[in-house]
Write a structure and sequence with these properties.
single chain; mainly alpha; about 10% strand; flat
Amino acid sequence: MQTIQANIQNLSDSEVVKVTKELFNIVYTRVPYEEVLQNSEGLTEANLPLLLSPESLEYEMTTAESAETCRFVLEMYAKNPELDSFVQQAWENVQSTDTLFIEEAILLGILVNLTLLNATTTFKGVKDANGITTWEVNKKEASPELVEVLFTPIIALAKKATNLTRDKRQREGSEWE
């Protein structure tokens, strides 16, 4: 059986972010706010004003930096015997949940719709002599190639979700319907 540290190393960047989000959901639902507040009082030696400077708050992390930071957090938690079970549970939740596929499918669906709208619709503003602008909207049909490119990831995601759901039901002893 692989250790949680090995599982973290095998995660893709997007999976690392998902597991980290799930970790924080688990931690913040189980640790009372008063305890978090009490523990944070011990951090007074850290220079928080420097960490929360306007420059640091304006900095936008790249995707790679975000994944690297999340991986570091997961590794630090996983090395601590008091915290590693939280990481294990977060990893298991992400590996076995169907809701992440639902979120991805919704986001992918929105992306497809917006792409189709942008790729097949043109807007033209025309100002008349009085300065009044009228808009002309033209809509064309999407090409079969465009539809194929846009829907291929949705079909792949649906197949992946179907396979995971079937596998999960088989592990739980349920019949696939």
